[in-house]
Amino acid sequence: MKRVLISDPTLRDGSHAIQHQLNTQQLTLYAELAEEAGIPIIEVGHGNGLGASSLQLGESSLSDTQMLETCRNILNKTRLGIHVIPGFATINKDLKNALDIGVDVIRVASHCTEADITKRHIEYCRNREREVHGVLMMSHMAPPSELAAEACKMQGYGAQGIIIMDSAGAYLPDTVKSRISVLVAALDIPVGFHAHNNLGMAIANSMTALEAGATILDGTMRGFGAGAGNAQLEILIAVMEKMGYETGIDLFKLLDAADTAEDSFLKVPYVNSTSIVSGLTGVFSGFAKPVDRIAKKYNVDPKDIFYELGKRKVVAGQEDIILEVAVSLSQSRQPMI
Amino acid sequence: MKRVLISDPTLRDGSHAIQHQLNTQQLTLYAELAEEAGIPIIEVGHGNGLGASSLQLGESSLSDTQMLETCRNILNKTRLGIHVIPGFATINKDLKNALDIGVDVIRVASHCTEADITKRHIEYCRNREREVHGVLMMSHMAPPSELAAEACKMQGYGAQGIIIMDSAGAYLPDTVKSRISVLVAALDIPVGFHAHNNLGMAIANSMTALEAGATILDGTMRGFGAGAGNAQLEILIAVMEKMGYETGIDLFKLLDAADTAEDSFLKVPYVNSTSIVSGLTGVFSGFAKPVDRIAKKYNVDPKDIFYELGKRKVVAGQEDIILEVAVSLSQSRQPMI
Fold this sequence. Notes:
The structure is a homodimer.
Chain A: E1 2-3, E2 5-11, H1 24-37, E3 41-44, H2 64-72, E4 79-84, H3 91-101, E5 105-111, H4 119-127, E6 131-137, H5 144-157, E7 162-165, H6 173-186, E8 191-194, H7 202-211, E9 216-218, H8 233-243, E10 245-246, H9 251-264, H10 273-281, H11 288-298, H12 302-312, H13 320-332
Parallel strand pairs in A: 1-10, 2-3, 2-9, 3-4, 4-5, 5-6, 6-7, 7-8, 8-9
């Protein structure tokens, strides 16, 4: 029986799906359900992580402190996790506060080619004796060898695991396999995969990651997450059971939990046409909501915006470019005088 | 460039998702969209195919004649297809009528171990010079060698292609690969795959089928179909383009068509907990609606019904067993006196 660590960012990546408007009742319910089903880690917070609530990225209805304390009060066996992007989250204010509240697992994340910015945050968490994983986002944008070099940096800073994210849902099984294999060979610490479903491959890519040696997987209930959503946790666990992997999660309780959570707040994501183009062009799934909003305002096709964003290779934090692209698409359609 | 024939049963398998209540406006719109996007074949009718409208399986709001004539009047390049299960569809009445209306492609289907019942229907269609494919449903229930033997029978009757259906959404890529490879080796005619998404594998399984030598794939817009739905056609085409397969479908027009059809009538299927259990236990996805209805009536968990149906290895046409199982589950919970 191969053991796999499951981390569930329903209350973090899912925030993207409802513009970061999770409330206390929803957090409480979900934390109770996760504890009951035996989910090892739940990640909580703004879609872009700790300290990311802002005009540019969208404002959370609750502060980081409110969200983390709500879940901390309930969780016992299930560990409390956060997603931390240096630049959004400062060490002295945001990270110190989160660790004081009692966060168990910290994921320090950067764009796939910028691991350098994670050094001080990783070291800070290790010094305070917490479990720290390094995360490389938009990992399809770097070739396997470069990804391995960046991951090795994070390992050097003290990361105890490396997760690569398919932030645009752009991977197919072959590209997952090549990247995970290279990372597993290059690192001495566990390797993980975080899928998105834009090309309908979230479950297949996750299983491929396991076959290639990954031992950490992310999944969210009903796939609740940015864009087309993540790997749907209940399916992931069902398929893993069928394939002989052990996670400690009770599948039946998980299925019941998903039904309850869906009734309460999970907006089920599905793969709409814009999400498909987002996956095809390799643009961050979290752009889906602002792109839809701005497309409507400027009366342009959101798919055309995603195509242009793909050409420009934009990444999270460059949301202002959406507006620029929409304006330019809208003007290019004006009749000549 | 490898050429793949796409057949789209949105207006047939999708009928399961809305209890066979498609109306003339929806059929008309969809046929126009399919024609515009260049979809090679659309399959039209009751969820269980020609002549299947009944109390037991659910009654269509339109007759087979009305549905087929509506689409026939619009289609030009796109060919008109039907799904035919001998036993539901008679030759002299149903099949003769459909061919008189001008159906182009006939799929004659049986349970995976009962190809014998397709002989006369296949021969009738060949005699009238139409394209005929043989379909083996619930194909996960037979091992590869038996499936190949049944497929060879259909080839012997005159079938010009063989499609295996994952009617329960129970396959994983490995099981698709082994079955398709054996079929491709055993047959002289094209082999196809029809996926369902209960275990999140519809797209991955379809791509695996192509790698193993299949040259016919089924997909429906937004995945509209029985249970957790089919392979989502827009994703399938996007991924196939990325992998270098040729289908003749215009991806952009298809994405627009899916948006339009969704606005008009496509109820987007998602993978709910019952669908996952249906895939795990290998029970026909088309049971989802009646199971939900009967579970509610007898106040039992639909997931428990699916587990019991899986143990009994039921197949389509045995819908009466749902009721029996629900009654027995409901009674087993009565307190002893």
